[in-house]
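FORM 12-B: Structure-to-Sequence Request
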């Protein structure tokens, strides 16, 4: 383990590792009632996972939003900006900024939609597909690092349960 020692000299797990069970780590402060609420525990897990996730993408020049958009475009060639906005659950104006950024990095291209002069179809470039795949590998390493104390079945169950919430 690479965690810190508590007052009794017992090593605690590192803060970025999910625990097998027990109370939520809150910097030495007992969460009390909050620890009973799934939303609170989910938020704490998200904060732990999100920080490492950002670091996993940073060296590739990606943020969660740009990675998500690029990934959806790779998996859905010729998607429209409106469809992308709905898939990401963000305003169309936010999608325009993301698309402009990805296009500026030559990761995607915009192509006219036949019969609709106002719409563009988005398609990833070879460079965009390669970057998405490299980022996916970094995210897999990130998840393996943070979820390594869960079995493959437990990880699948966690994914399934969270999907049922959304």
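FORM 12-B RESPONSE
SEQUENCE OUT:
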């Amino acid at each position: 383990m690479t965690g810190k020692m508590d007052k009794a000299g017992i090593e605690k797990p590192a803060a970025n590792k999910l625990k097998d069970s027990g109370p939520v780590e809150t910097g030495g402060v007992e969460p009390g009632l909050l620890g009973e609420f799934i939303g609170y525990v989910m938020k704490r897990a998200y904060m732990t996972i999100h920080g490492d996730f950002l670091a996993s993408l940073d060296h590739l020049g990606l943020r969660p939003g740009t990675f998500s958009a690029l990934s959806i475009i790779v998996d859905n060639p010729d998607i429209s900006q409106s469809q992308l906005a709905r898939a990401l659950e963000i305003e169309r104006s936010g999608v325009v900024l993301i698309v402009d950024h990805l296009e500026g990095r030559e990761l995607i291209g915009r192509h006219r939609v036949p019969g609709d002069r106002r719409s563009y179809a988005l398609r990833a470039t070879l460079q965009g597909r390669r970057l998405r795949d490299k980022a996916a590998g970094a995210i897999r390493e990130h998840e393996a690092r943070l979820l390594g104390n869960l079995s493959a079945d437990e990880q699948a169950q966690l994914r399934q349960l969270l999907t049922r919430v959304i």
